[in-house]
TrEMBL record:
<dbReference type="GO" id="GO:0006139">
    <property type="term" value="P:nucleobase-containing compound metabolic process"/>
</dbReference>
<dbReference type="InterPro" id="IPR045254">
    <property type="entry name" value="Nit1/2_C-N_Hydrolase"/>
</dbReference>
<keyword id="KW-0378">Hydrolase</keyword>
<protein>
    <submittedName>
        <fullName>Nitrilase and fragile histidine triad fusion protein NitFhit</fullName>
    </submittedName>
</protein>
<dbReference type="InterPro" id="IPR001110">
    <property type="entry name" value="UPF0012_CS"/>
</dbReference>
<dbReference type="Pfam" id="PF00795">
    <property type="entry name" value="CN_hydrolase"/>
</dbReference>
<dbReference type="GO" id="GO:0016811">
    <property type="term" value="F:hydrolase activity, acting on carbon-nitrogen (but not peptide) bonds, in linear amides"/>
</dbReference>
<dbReference type="GO" id="GO:0047710">
    <property type="term" value="F:bis(5'-adenosyl)-triphosphatase activity"/>
</dbReference>
<feature type="domain" description="CN hydrolase">
    <location>
        <begin position="32"/>
        <end position="281"/>
    </location>
</feature>
<dbReference type="InterPro" id="IPR003010">
    <property type="entry name" value="C-N_Hydrolase"/>
</dbReference>
<dbReference type="InterPro" id="IPR036526">
    <property type="entry name" value="C-N_Hydrolase_sf"/>
</dbReference>
Length: 311
């Protein structure tokens, strides 16, 4: 009988470990799941919509509460003329289809940087929209930082403002089932003033749906997203375009989710697909409590400074 005790003890220990593991699993699953999506848009709205449908369906199958789609998830045209011509109002068929997808899957959707038609026949808006699980458009943010580069030395000219109108408003964070969500788009991530403003407005999750070029993505994508998470103590969700869209444009990919400590907790590689992670607001509050940066911010001094051009 004495020889049996080790086996009994081992069985008891294993049972205790199993219970602890189950408790941990259950507590972990109490936090909402989100899906960050990655795709390769082309100049075909129908095919792009088919991809969005598949990605959202996969997000739902994996129990995500919200799915995040990248900038230009509606289309990526080969030239500026077609880009403007293919743009639709937010009441158009493309957004209507997104609403139907949200209802069908009972899921919230973040659709970053769709091409919104404007009253200007020659220009559009780059607009990040948020649709709830009832199919309602609950927020729309028009990109405020446009990427313009006209380098005479290299001959490279990339002027987003040639066909896109600047947004004029910072949209307050939106209350969602995963927390207070702030809307931004791609190039916005290079301006920490915006993310800080959104944090001060109550943001818990920052979003940067993007179509980052391959060269700049390789150099800056990960470090900037992690920096925005660390300095604001927020989750960062960055859906991404990936691969070759046409002969002139290739995107970096690597869609990711970063936690408030700056750790990458989910990431896609370079193919179309999704990555899943939890949003744990208790962790967010713990990070903010243990590193109370907001209490140390010298707004009494910052407010005295103004931006000035160096002549």
């Amino acid at each position: 009988m004495r020889r049996a005790w080790p086996a009994v003890a081992q069985l008891f220990a294993l049972k205790c470990y199993s219970i602890q593991l189950a408790k941990h699993y259950m507590s972990t699953m109490a936090h909402p799941l989100i899906a960050v999506c990655q795709m390769r848009s082309i100049a075909d709205k129908v095919k792009n919509l088919e991809v969005v449908i598949e990605l959202v369906a996969e997000a739902k199958r994996r129990s995500a509460t919200m799915a995040f789609l990248p900038e230009a998830c509606d289309f990526l045209a080969d030239n500026k003329k077609d880009t403007v011509a293919m743009a639709e109002p937010l009441t158009g068929q493309t957004v209507t289809s997104y609403k139907e997808i949200a209802i069908k899957n009972n899921i919230w959707l973040s659709l970053g940087g769709i091409h919104e038609a404007s009253d200007d026949a020659e220009k559009i808006y780059n607009t990040h929209i948020l649709i709830n699980n009832k199919g309602q458009l609950v927020a729309a943010y028009r990109k405020i930082h446009l990427f313009d580069m006209d380098n005479k030395d290299t001959g490279v000219r990339l002027m987003e403002s040639d066909y896109v109108l600047k947004g004029t408003e910072i949209v307050p964070p939106v209350s969602t089932p995963i927390g207070k969500l702030a809307l931004s788009i791609c190039y916005d991530m290079r301006f920490p003033e915006l993310s800080l403003t959104l944090r001060n407005m109550g943001a818990q999750i920052l979003t940067y749906p993007s179509a980052f070029t391959y060269q700049t993505g390789a150099a800056h994508w990960e470090m900037m997203l992690r920096a925005r998470a660390i300095e604001n103590q927020c989750y960062v969700v960055a859906a991404a375009q990936t691969g070759a869209h046409n002969k002139k444009r290739v995107s970096w990919g690597h869609a990711m989710i970063v936690d408030p400590w700056g750790a990458i907790i989910a990431q896609c590689a370079e193919k179309t697909g999704i990555a899943i992670a939890e949003i744990d607001l208790a962790l967010l509050e713990k990070v903010r409590k243990n590193m109370p940066c907001e209490e140390h911010r010298r707004t009494d001094l910052y407010s005295k400074m103004e931006y000035q051009k160096i002549i």
